[in-house]
Amino acid sequence: MKRAGVDTGGTFTDFVFFDGERLRSKKLLSIPEDPSMAVLGGMEKGFTVIHGTTVATNAFLEGRTARTALITTSGFRHLLQIGRQIRINLYAKDVEKPPEIIPEELCFGVEERTLPDGEELIPLNEEELKSLIDKLKGMGVEAVAVVFLHSYENPAHEIQAGTILSPHFRTSLSHQVLNEHREYERAVMTSLNASLLPVMEEYLSHLENRLGARLFIMNSAGGFISASLAREMPVFTLLSGPAGGVIASHGFGRLIGLEKIITLDMGGTSTDVSLIKKKPTITRSSTLAHLPLRIPMIEIQTVGTGGGSIARVDEGGALKVGPQSAGADPGPACYGKSQLPTLTDAMVVLGRIREEFPLGGSLKIKPERSFKAIEEIASLLSTDVYRAAEGILEVSLANTERALKLVSVERGEDPSEFTLMAFGGAGGLVAAELSLRLSMAGAVIPPLQGVFSALGMLLSDGVREYTSSFMRAVSRENTKEALEVFRKMEGKARDELSWGQDILFERFAEMRYQGQGYEISVPFEPDPSRLRENFEKAHRKLYFHTQKAPVEIVNLRLRAILPSEKPKIPQIPQARAKPILKGKIYYKGKFWEADFYRREHLGRSQRLNGPSVVVSGDGTVFVPPGFSAEVGKYGELWIRVKNV
Asked: What CATH architecture applies to the domain 462-562?
């Protein structure tokens, strides 16, 4: 099957094509006002598309979601406003709240009630619900979220409501989005999903109609789902783009014998980092703008530091970089459309990016504009242009270093046991210095570095996760009941993943000691003693103790995996490439003469000494003085301090 991985970023849209035999790639400038235009502009006929998109995330963050109403059980219409007793900033004078998904005037309660065990107490008042339809239409509502109490145990009332509302509005039912207890989290997820339904419907319909090809969408857990499922469950596509890079790192890491990896994906707008320890780290307790996201997603930390991050001097005279970005339009000063001083412009001034090598393979830069933009920063700092550029880089490195520590040191992991895998157009420019700061084993720059996330989409499988609230003590009778629940979820998975065969299933139980307010996910075992053993082993690892209290299963979770055919990354021949030019770079306060190489000319086992710069159509790699780089058999660059 001919397949294409497409990753839409803030600055570039990346493509990797696999025709069954070889890999090809390209980059196009993104079109922020309509991301689909860049996708359509770069696609070729005859390829099935796996697409990582930030459409859902950007729509929410930029407030471009559909006007949505919440309908819930009478007396609970303020679910979203009340939230949890958690303050975002404990010491702030004013209480900071998460952004409003649905305004209070669009939250309604209707008469109905289901008990925690699923028994109906009060039937759904259909007439009351029907009377809301005209009112909602008059208020300009496009989508409706339905969240009834305890619908995870008995969804009958939500199904009834959906039947009444769906002819008039795009409708999202909580038991279909998050079939778990905790009303607030369920309300957040369902409201987000409903508000994104029209947005994703418009985007995906436009793409499918114009592509004339089969379309799959990356989800946040590192797998892909059908476009039809993404339309119904757009909340599962939040943060889907960065997941591709982690999947590619995992797959390529296994190929070259690395099990402990910290990923660094530095693009034009932001930098994403994640930790891999044999497998990518999956979490179900993420947040987006301080809102709880109870969806499976690869644990990724994002900082607003990318090539397009704008540098400025604040009122106190401190140099800041990001999170504001110049993006693709107008872009950094060197693009020729703005005079915004960015990290990319700093790299131009420092000599690591040169006009002889167009960005993305086609964008010719204008160095004189970079110098002019950075000189304005230099004058505010009372220094010269080179020191100002190095200061911008230093601030960016410090921001990224903090993110790397968040996924490693703050999780109890020692960075020195890990290798940094850096990719994205700018990842190779900072990899060596960041690996040294964290005393890491070195850095690896993989092949296809600038389109690595798009490659990850071709290395991913079809993945869909299902949960079911269980709320039972661990016992032989209850684990037997759990097996029946898993079988029902597996049947649903076979229906939804009908476009493939040979589905693999992974079963998990989310467990806690009775009375605790948090759960730990462990592999499910039918044997209750082994299941408790799994839980206590995980509890001891996280919290350094166990208890003698009863243990209960809160949720059952099923991960359905549909394996896909993976492209093979070709090995490269041995060769000894010579520098194509020599140029001045500025590093650590002085000028150096650096060798510049074309990456495609390098051969296996070739060794480069710093200072060197390796350029390609999709990214640049900087080997600083005191470092060396060795070319691996797949064209990857291993960068280490010379005395290591």
From this structure: 2-Layer Sandwich (3.30)
